[in-house]
Specification:
Aminopeptidase, 7 strands, single chain, alpha+beta, 6 helices, 213 residues, 7-stranded mixed sheet
Length: 213
């Protein structure tokens, strides 16, 4: 299975979060938040995220945009998991990777219960819940899924440390590749711009030569 690096987000990533949610279609947002949500309310949600209280995880693509975001709302020994994946990155294991990272965080931070609340028609979330072995309770159009989280151990703590390092390394590597790509594109664009006046001048001289002849 392809490994999807996941990074724990911070205040520095708030603008990337805004772009991620604004890029989602209205139906995607309805499934994520369980109701129709306006852009103003959406931005208030992003602005209100408390990175010191909750845990937020993301997967960055090659353009340093967030391909997927998981928000782990923490309330004492209980955590609520919510996830969204950008349309162009679905089917790549992004949602599953985010869930696994959130579950790992819960184990190592004394969270006893991980739960999901979503619409029954949210197939992606239902798939994650079933795959995780959550206890699912159907109530009309809504679903609640619960999972008892075992305490962390030396292995889970080590895995979380490694995952944090991998996420940071992945972001640094993608940043370098993006910078190199943009530099190459800028140089190519500059070279093309500089070549146009020469071509026009050569064309003009050719016409003058024809007239003189």
């Amino acid at each position: 299975m392809k490994t999807v690096p996941v990074l724990q987000l911070s205040e520095a990533n708030r603008e990337a979060l805004r772009r991620h949610f604004l890029a989602l279609a209205p139906e995607d947002l309805r499934l994520r938040f369980e109701h129709v949500i306006s852009e103003l309310t959406l931005m208030k949600y992003v602005d209100a995220i408390d990175f010191d209280r909750d845990a937020v995880f993301g997967v960055f693509d090659e353009n340093l945009e967030l391909a997927g975001v998981a928000h782990l709302g923490l309330r004492g020994e209980v955590a609520e998991f919510g996830v969204s994946v950008a349309p162009g990155h679905r089917g790549e294991g992004v949602g599953t990777a985010l869930y696994r990272r959130a579950y790992e965080y819960c184990r190592n931070h004394r969270i006893l219960t991980l739960f999901v609340h979503c619409l029954q028609e949210n197939a992606a979330m239902m798939h994650i819940a079933r795959k995780a072995g959550m206890e699912i309770v159907l109530d009309s159009a809504e679903v609640e899924a619960h999972l008892r989280v075992p305490p962390g151990d030396p292995l889970s703590l080590t895995e979380e440390l490694i995952d944090d390092r991998v996420g940071l390394f992945d972001l640094a590597l993608k940043s370098q590749f993006l910078a190199a790509r943009r530099f190459t594109e800028a140089m190519a664009s500059a070279a093309e711009t500089l070549s146009h006046p020469l071509q026009q001048e050569e064309g003009g001289q050719s016409e003058e030569d024809k007239e003189a002849a």
